[in-house]
TrEMBL record:
One of its GO terms (biological process) is RNA modification. It comes from the Eukaryota. PPR repeats lie at residues 159-193, 260-294. This is DYW domain-containing protein. Residues 476-569 form the DYW domain. It comes from Aegilops tauschii subsp. strangulata. GO terms for molecular function: RNA binding; zinc ion binding. The keyword Ribonucleoprotein does not apply. Keywords: Repeat, Transit peptide. Pfam families: DYW_deaminase, E_motif, PPR, PPR_2. InterPro entries: DYW_dom, E_motif, PPR_At4g14850-like_plant, PPR_rpt, TPR-like_helical_dom_sf.
């Protein structure tokens, strides 16, 4: 009866009645099987009643219930069964600790997980590789990467689950380079990866802009004829889109037999980041006809694409259908994207009206930052000062707002106000975020900061950059000196601009690939400055090379003296 019932609550209750009628209600094997199937059916309270009503429950019963609950998406029930086992002072097994650690990981319950870790050590399971792996997953998911790494290093015979946990732990906590290091370590010891290894590694490549490694993983997936799950396919689309090869991302997207909302959203976001707003909208309409219903993240991608391409009417339509058709309540990200869209298009009055009419409650810093960026772009200094002062009142210790206010004052010629803002920053010990640029050559990343002189080829890089500046100046380049501190003399300003991290990274890439036609790819952690944007346009022309820069907000594809953003950035 139990076997026929399977994990179906109604049929299990009938089987339970038959067990009682036939006089087997005290049979522990029957009750264990019945309760375990009840948990698998989602009836954890019924299973709890069955287990606790037995006169002599054993460790195997509660261990089985803990494991089944953890593996059937019932983490709260798994922890409850573990606690019953604990209070009954019954023996524990490594499988119990493995299961309850998984349950804690699913809930991100780090305090409970830490107590369970201590309990496992107390009972002698501190070096069990299955328990260590489950705890590694827990600490990785909860962002406790120092502890996770210690556990990882303590596991002698690591399973693919352990490798995946460490790679994804680093990637999900913004440490893509460390994730890539672990993947390379995995390759060095010839551990066999699975599809989840590649999903995590591709996500790290997308985050770090590591296109070479991403392509290597792609080739391995194809050569090994791996089954392209929707997760792996989405990771490939996202990696190529975020590494600047949007055409390849679209080819993978079209080749996938199954696409979920993440796949569609990744491709739409990819188009948006590259300034292909019309393609993003076209794909969004296709998704509405043939794909899954869009979610909140999809609409953020669509609205962002509209903002970066000046598609105001399309953005209005998308925002309107979000609630009307899909019943999705706009979040702060959607309001912020709409304000950004109006602001970039120069519609500052409409942006302010939108804030007044549509936003519930007081707007947060994200919204005012979007308005401030538009004020700087369109030289609306009066509104810019008002918004910057509002931002500083909201977050007085955020240095970026003081820098933006200083820039607004400087651009409007109010130098005494510039000095006042900078004195405030000095007094409060506020420092602006340091910009850096990354370029990957031959699988190795090279990092540059403004005026960087720690690189082993510094002399050659600076000499090459000087020659490059001379050539682009002859072609018509004039430094945009208003981008830097206004108290400097004109000649000093040009010097300050010359050695920005973007220029150093591009110069190094060009110097190391003379005669190549491969695009130069640079990642900048902040928004690219106006002068570097202008200079790199000229560099792409005089060097006859495509140069791709991914900054904080979007991609810039420089080719033949033009940029894909069409000055709309």
């Amino acid at each position: 009866s139990l076997l026929l019932a399977g994990p179906r609550a109604g049929a299990l209750k009938q089987a339970h009645a038959r067990i009682i009628v036939t006089g087997h209600s005290r049979s522990l094997p029957f009750i264990t099987k019945l309760a375990t199937l009840a948990v698998a059916a989602g009836a954890a309270p019924y299973a709890h009643l069955l287990a606790t009503s037995h006169p002599a429950p054993d460790s195997f019963l509660f261990s089985s219930l803990t494991r089944t609950a953890a593996h059937h998406g019932l983490p709260v029930a798994a922890i409850a069964f573990y606690r019953i086992l604990l209070s009954a002072a019954l023996p524990f097994s490594s499988f119990t600790f493995t299961a309850v650690a998984k349950a804690c990981a699913d809930l991100s319950a780090i305090r409970t997980g830490t107590a369970i870790h201590a309990h496992s050590i107390l009972l002698g399971f501190g070096s069990d590789r299955f328990v260590l792996t489950a705890l590694l997953v827990l600490y990785s998911k909860c962002g406790q990467l120092g502890v996770a790494r210690k556990l990882f290093d303590a596991i002698r015979d690591r399973s693919v689950v352990a490798w995946n946990a460490m790679i994804s732990g680093y990637e999900q906590n913004g440490l893509a380079e460390r994730a890539i290091e672990v993947y390379k370590e995995m390759q060095a010891v010839k551990a066999v990866p699975d599809s989840m290894t590649f999903v995590a590694t591709l996500s790290a490549c997308a985050q770090a802009g590591a296109l070479d490694l991403g392509r290597e993983v792609d080739r391995r997936i194809v050569s090994e004829r791996m089954d392209i799950s929707v997760f792996l396919g989405s990771a490939l689309v996202n990696m190529y889109a975020r590494c600047g090869v949007v055409d390849k991302a679209r080819r993978w997207f079209d080749a996938l037999q199954e696409r979920n909302v993440v796949t569609w959203t990744s491709m739409i976001a990819g188009y948006g980041m590259h300034g292909h707003g019309h393609e993003a909208i076209k794909l969004f309409h296709l998704m509405r006809r043939e794909g899954p219903p869009p979610n909140h993240v999809t609409f953020v991608a669509v609205l962002s694409a509209c903002a970066h391409a000046g598609l105001v009417m399309e953005g209005r339509d998308a925002f309107a259908c979000m609630k009307r058709i899909y019943g999705l309540v706009p979040r702060i990200e959607h309001y912020c994207s709409m304000v950004d869209m109006f602001g970039r298009a120069g519609l500052l009055d409409e942006a302010m009206q939108f804030i007044s009419d549509y936003m519930p409650g007081e707007p947060g810093p994200e919204v005012w930052t979007a308005v401030l960026g538009a004020c700087k772009m369109h030289k609306n200094f009066n509104l810019g000062v008002e918004v910057a002062e509002r931002l500083i009142a909201l977050e007085p210790e955020n240095p970026s707002y003081h820098v933006l206010l200083s820039n607004i004052y400087a651009l409007s010629g109010k130098m005494h106000h510039v000095e006042k803002v900078r004195n405030t920053m000095i007094k409060r010990r506020l420092k602006k975020q340091i910009g850096f640029s990354l370029i990957e050559l031959g699988g190795t990343s090279h990092l540059f900061r403004m005026g960087e002189k720690s690189h082993p080829q510094t002399t050659e890089i600076y000499q090459y950059l000087e020659e490059l500046i001379h050539r682009i100046s002859a072609a018509g380049y004039m430094p945009e000196t208003e981008s830097v501190l206004h108290e400097l003399e004109e000649e000093e300003r040009e010097g300050a601009l010359r050695y920005h991290s973007e220029k150093l990274a591009v110069a190094y890439g060009l110097m190391m690939s003379v005669g190549s036609t491969t695009p130069i790819r640079v990642i900048k952690n902040l928004r690219i400055c106006g002068d570097c944007h202008l200079a790199i346009k000229f560099m792409s022309s005089v060097e006859n090379r495509e140069i791709v820069v991914r900054d904080k907000h979007r991609f810039h594809h420089f080719k033949d003296g033009k940029c894909s953003c069409l000055e709309y950035w």
